[in-house]
Every structure is written in C-alpha cells, then in structure tokens.
C-alpha cells in the first residue's frame, strides 16, 4: 500500500510532516542539504536575535570612538566603516545561500526586542526569499509593573505590525505560560498569524557553586515533554479550525511521537533535540517508524490520520482538560506494588 505522507503547513505543500525546527546547525548549508536528503518537509533556520545585532553595533561604535575624548586627531585614525557585516547580514546571507541549495521550504525565525526591530528585520527576511517567517516570542514576564493583559496586548500588537509589513506566511512560536492560552491563541490568529508553533521551550539557567555565577545549561528535550503541546493542539484544533496551521514541537524523538502529534491535529511535527543528538540521518528512521505505524493501522495518508484524537473526535474530550486529573494521580504504582504483581 502506498502511503501519502504529504501535508500542508502555512499554505506550503510539504513532502513530509517531519520538520527540522530552529537549531543552530540548521543555518549551515551543509546541514540543510543533509536534512533535505534525509527527508524533512521543511527547515526552520535558527533565530535572528535583535540583541545580538545591537550588541555588535554597540561594540563597533565603542571601539571606533575609543580615545576620541582625549585626542581630537583620533577622529582621523580610522576611515568610515561603510560595509560592516553584522549578525543580520550574516543571517540573511546564510538564508540566501540555503535557499539556492535546497528545494524544501526554508522558514526564517526572528526574535526581536523592539517593535521597530520586528518589522525591519521581517521585511529584510522576506526580501531575501524566505518561504515563511516564524516569530519567536521568547520573553519572561519578570516586570512586576506589567500585567498579563499588558504582555498579551504587546505581543498581539507586534504580530499585527509584522503581518501588515510582510506578505509571506507567518507562524508564531509561543510559550505555554499565557494566563488564558486558548484566548490568546485565537487572538494571535485574529491579529494575523497563519499558524502557531507549540511550544517554545525556555532554557533554565543554573548556578555555578564554585564561582557563584549564573550559567547557561542546555538540556535536550525528553519524550514526556511532548504531552504539553499535544494536549493543547488537541484542544485548539477544533477551536481554530483547519485553516490555521498548528505545529507540535518539544520532546519529539520517534516516529510514534510524530503519529501522536498528527492524531491530535498537528499539521507538522518539529524536531530539534533528536537531530542534535543523532544527526540529520535520524529523520529517515523517524519517517520509517511513522510509515510502519500507518501501514500497520491501515491509514493511507497523513491527512486521514490528522485530528482523529483531538478534543472534537475523542469519546471523552474532557480528558484533555481536568477530568483525568484524579485518574492520573492514582495511576502511580510504587516499585513495591509493581514487584508484587
């Protein structure tokens, strides 16, 4: 039996629902080619961070101005810098090169810190040829003077601003930490989002006990972490309708994980940690596992499978909300009880 694993995401036709989500190595043409050969449906580039752009510009200005406050003639030491190649230029050059070397859709990712930055770099990304743009809403609500309503309003304003400035498909990668996430998801779509990527995974800092410094700690995702995006996609799919693209990300390791994401209603399922750990070739393994499951269960296409376990189709939709809370708690079996059986 021939199985059609093609899908549609953000209005783009993909050969597979397996997408390489934003990761540092995706910005390298060699890796992009390997991912395409392994069978991904699309490639999401690493995020362009406005903070990195500004930091480089500030450091350049500081270096060029050093000593000018002491010696007037220091102003003539250096020629004007007209062709400074910064983080944004390098990012766009990488995007342009990857677009010439792979045939699968290439989705750029942007994380800015100012409204002007979002719009300015979104336009440059579109002009360079990205097939779609993913806005990475990565921020922590740590300001006690900003309410949840303030934070949400600011996010919706920037979505609307970017939507008004570019014509390519627009996805919003969000965290699960909104006070009323279903409401925000619907509002993001109303503001102009073509799709949602669930969820952004915040990396938590750690403390170095020797230096007392706050240090980064990168932990690759684990399979159990996929339960959160799967739960919310199952809830949102019937609410938002088939016209809104949904992507599941975080914790995706195997073909069975991809199947679960599709069952709850995802259009694509994204992978990062598994590809960092096992390399681009892991995509072939995941696709083979997915195909085997579809064959064993007599599905002829991804489309036929999609949404069969969403809140609109399962026998007990409340299982995705609170109804299974007590059952989950009571499902714990101690090692002693397990040995007794």
Set down the secondary structure blueprint.
Blueprint: E1 7-9, E2 12-14, E3 18-20, H1 29-38, E4 42-49, H2 50-65, H3 87-101, E5 106-111, H4 115-128, E6 132-136, H5 148-165, E7 170-174, H6 181-191, E8 195-198, E9 206-207, E10 214-215, H7 227-240, E11 245-249, H8 255-264, E12 268-271, H9 273-278, H10 282-296, H11 302-305, H12 325-330, H13 335-340
Parallel strand pairs: 3-4, 3-12, 4-5, 5-6, 6-7, 7-8, 8-11, 11-12
Antiparallel strand pairs: 1-2, 9-10
Concise synopsis of the structure shown:
The protein is of the alpha/beta class and 341 residues long. Helices cover 43% and strands 15% of the residues.
How many domains comprise the coordinates? Answer: 1
**CATH topological fold name:** TIM Barrel
> What is the CATH architecture descriptor?
Alpha-Beta Barrel
- Poorly predicted parts: none
Shape annotation: globular
DSSP strand tally: 12
The CATH homology group name: Aldolase class I
Query: Can you give the helix content as a percent range?
Result: 40-55%
Instruction: Please state the average pLDDT score.
Output: 87
N-to-C series of helices and strands: EEEHEHHEHEHEHEEEHEHEHHHHH
Largest sheet: 8 strands, parallel, barrel
The protein's oligomeric status is single chain
Indicate the structural class.
alpha/beta
State which percent range the strand residues make up: 5-15%
Number of helices: 13
Across the major sheet, the strand order is 3-4-5-6-7-8-11-12
What is the first-to-last residue Cα distance? 42 Å
Radius of gyration: 23 Å
- CATH C-level name: Alpha Beta
